[in-house]
Design a protein that fits this description.
The chain is mainly alpha-helical. Helices cover about 75% and strands about 0% of the residues. The protein has helices at about 1-15, 20-30, 35-55, 65-90, 95-100, 105-115, 120-140, 145-170, 175-200, 210-235, 240-245, 250-260, 265-285. Helix 6 runs antiparallel to helix 11 (about 240-245) and helix 9 crosses helix 10.
């Protein structure tokens, strides 16, 4: 049942992550751009997760190999990924950048097969194919591609694949989720803050109080629920299954945009939604462990 439990964690995590663009779109209306939003949230989550770890008496100060592995994974997963994806938006539409970034489930599956001798089942291949096709349908026509933007978006997919694989195959997966959250938030805060200062996109003068309220409201769900659930999904279901199920993230974004922002649902998006739902059902069904067959003991004959 661990695989099924991990699959459910992964789906719930992706669903919550899928709501993040809605928070950002509302926050932009009140003077918060994406970089400022991400920086403020990461700084506050770093402080809050540190306090939570202290209150739970969790070992925040890691040493030796545990510290090196955690800094490497969190620095790449939360720091480099966000930085590269943000840079790709300067050269590509957000939809195209998202499509290329979501090659990471394919990379996770390939790495699992090549380096960890993971079995590539027909169910996983089918679900991954459906999910990838759905994301392409969601983003529509790619338009003119910029090679620099493609390289940056692809690099962000590679770094997040590295993070997902490492989370499932190193000692980091055994750390408490709030400890991993602390290091992830700290790495994300340093990266987004540095990028914001260099690019001069860190702007506070235009921020209005409703924007701050929206950013604060996103923290409990995005950081303290979705991020730990992703780690638990990797722990119990494995990196490949969790990565495949993460394709439900853009599905939730599409549906939330339609319901909350009045965005249109065209035929391509509808087909994409069906693809992801089918792929998710296939993955969850494959995660169910077969029940052990009950055997009836053969009665022994009494001695004559």
């Amino acid at each position: 049942m661990d695989k099924l439990k991990g699959s459910l964690f992964a789906i719930l995590s992706a669903a919550i992550f899928g709501l993040s663009p809605i928070y950002m779109k509302y926050a932009v209306l009140y003077g918060l751009n994406v970089i400022t939003f991400s920086t403020l949230r990461a700084v506050l989550v770093t402080l809050a997760s540190f306090l939570v770890c202290r209150s739970l008496k969790l070992p925040v100060v890691l040493k030796g190999p545990a510290l090196k592995e955690t800094l490497l994974l969190c620095g790449i997963g939360s720091g480099a990924t966000g930085f590269l994806l943000a840079l790709s938006y300067d050269y590509l539409s957000s939809g195209m950048a998202t499509t290329i970034h979501f090659t990471y489930p394919v990379l996770v599956m390939l790495a699992g097969v090549l380096f960890y001798k993971e079995k590539c089942s027909a169910a996983k291949v089918a679900a991954l194919t459906l999910g990838t096709a759905a994301i392409v349908l969601f983003t529509g026509s790619p338009g003119q591609l910029n090679l620099t933007g493609v390289a940056l978006a692809l690099a962000s997919g590679c770094t997040y694949a590295f993070y997902t694989i490492g989370l499932g195959n190193t000692g980091v997966k055994n750390l408490h989720p709030f400890v991993v959250l602390f290091y992830s938030a700290a790495c994300g805060a340093l990266t987004s803050l540095g990028y914001g200062l260099v690019s001069r996109t860190l702007v506070f003068e235009t921020i209005q109080m409703p924007g701050i309220a929206i950013m604060l409201a996103s923290i409990p769900f995005y950081s303290f629920i979705a991020a730990p659930l992703f780690q638990l999904g990797v722990r119990y279901a494995g990196p490949t299954t969790t990565a495949i199920l993460s394709t439900t993230e853009p599905l939730v974004s599409i549906l939330a945009g339609m319901l909350m922002l009045g965005e249109e649902m065209d035929a391509a998006k509808l087909i994409g939604c069906i693809f992801i739902l089918v792929g998710t059902l296939v993955t969850v069904a494959a995660a169910k462990e077969p029940r052990a067959l009950k055997t009836t003991p053969v009665p022994t004959q009494p001695n004559a």
